[in-house]
Amino acid sequence: MTTETRPTLSPARWYVVTILALVYALNIADRYVVSTVLEPIRKEFGLSDTGVGWLTGVSLAIFYIFAGLPIARYADRANRRNIVALALITWSGMTALLGMTQNFWQFLLARIGVGIGEAGCTPPSTSIIADNFPRGRRAYALTLWALGLPLGAWLGSSVAGAIVDHFHSWRAAFIALGVPGVVFGAIILLTVREPIRGRFELVTETSEPAATFGETCRFLWSQRSAWHINAAGAVICLWGWGMLFWMQTYFERAYGLSTSDAGARLGTIYFWAGTLATVATGALLALPQMQDAKRIAWFLAGITILSTIPSFVIFWTHSLRVATIMLWLVIPCVYLYMGPTMALLLNFLPPTMRAQGMAISLLAANVCNLIIAPTAVGWISDTLAVRLGSNAESLRYALLALSLTGFWAGYHYLTSVRTYDSDDVRLGFPGKTPAFEA
Length: 438
Fold this sequence. Notes:
Blueprint: H1 12-36, H2 38-45, H3 49-75, H4 80-98, H5 104-118, H6 122-130, H7 135-145, H8 148-167, H9 170-191, H10 213-222, H11 224-255, H12 259-285, H13 293-316, H14 320-336, H15 338-347, H16 354-388, H17 391-403, H18 406-416, H19 420-426
Helix pairs in contact: 1-4, 1-6, 1-7, 1-8, 1-9, 3-5, 3-16, 4-5, 4-6, 4-9, 6-16, 7-12, 7-15, 8-9, 8-12, 11-12, 11-14, 11-15, 11-16, 11-17, 11-18, 12-14, 13-14, 13-17, 13-18, 16-17
């Protein structure tokens, strides 16, 4: 059933984007703080690089994945606002609990709880935003939502590092970042409204039942555009977020920086470079010409491929100054890709599959950045450390190998463009992707 008139765009939709961006910031902060205190945790619990990768990355990812799929399935048929609020309260409470742990197993159990809570954040949040904006404006809206990334990274790096320095305890950072989220969850319940599902599409909310997980997987496989967009986002997570997972530890080992010094240096770059790049991308995507999905993909491919070169130099050089300058060039790409990539993926998914489709995308991304990157880099570092006699040099070589995967992500963005027109037709839209309705 087609809609006769398009719904009006209420100014309240920007409040929703702002609130959900703050939720995302808390999500990223609670994840980033682990990277900030990775070295103190490793030393206190007597872990290898592989062991700390399993404790902090894999433990979160496995349960994030297992919880994320059923939560997303539920979000495609239930109240998404309530899911986001409950998820925020859960992971924030578990983050605070991390600060009270006294041994490996207590930390592991609390980290699992964080993963289960975080699984209810992004799929329903992006689905809510998609139902507040038409196709041509989603990349812009989701790019502004992605401002939560640099804000959260700054909180989890600079603020967390300062807290550790002030209280002389890595546990204080978890408590300070976890408690506010519990309060913020109540604010969401009181002020955010659940939008009508599919209100800007060619179908009404009640015209189709929510898709099953199997149907969503089969549809994603048939939509080659969506498949390559998903692959590009996953590989960028392996490349960019995998590097950032180890960046704090690398700076401490390679250049002898303290936790607070490294956190302040990295947090400043994450915040300013990430924020400016995200705002600039939002302004670019607000242009009428950038409502063409193909131009968005070409833009992301070019930025990713060019940024891969300085990402290699970060670990090739032995100069802290050069590494810092290169990081200023790489960070924008690591942050600006998120909103446009999610918008491209959502535009090639029907409303009844959006939360599940996003959960599948996040599954691939989190396997890459929370399982493969921590454990593979950790294993390579541990293996080379025996031969090199230095865990700083061994980590350097492991990260050099990881840095080259940025070229792989660029390939998927370029390849996705080939089937945009035919995949658009399959969704019931006109055969040309330029001029998504604004």
